[in-house]
Give the backbone structure.
Amino acid sequence: MKASILILAGMSAVAAVGLTACETTPRERTRYVDVRTERERAQQCVGAFEPDGKAPQVMTYDSKTGTEVHMNQDGRRVDVTAQNASDNTALGMGGKVGGKIPEACTDADPLPGAALPKDRSYKTTWNSQK
């Protein structure tokens, strides 16, 4: 009995030393810093939906704002991009006709992702994730 109490007391002392060592260790946090320019972020968004760099099948241009809109179709997949070189803004969207929620991006968030979050409470028959 005395031996087991002694062992338990020794273990608690070791645990206490281990916990205090963990508490005193400083923790450093790092944060991702995007060092790309506005133009590079806009180009990444457009490049996600125009990866081969070929001329678009349909293109429009608004001379008043300087905005270009490109549309490409490959079978049931349709990709639409819009970009404005004067203010380094962009929008990209693509998906299958009759498919689920399309992917989208902007110059502020150049990595393509679902246009609507999957965990939403406003599902309808046309935007449900089945």
User: Anything to note?
Assistant: The first strand starts at residue 58 and ends at 62. DSSP finds two helices and six strands in the chain. The mean pLDDT is 79. The beta strands are 58-62, 67-74, 77-84, 89-96, 103-106, 113-114.
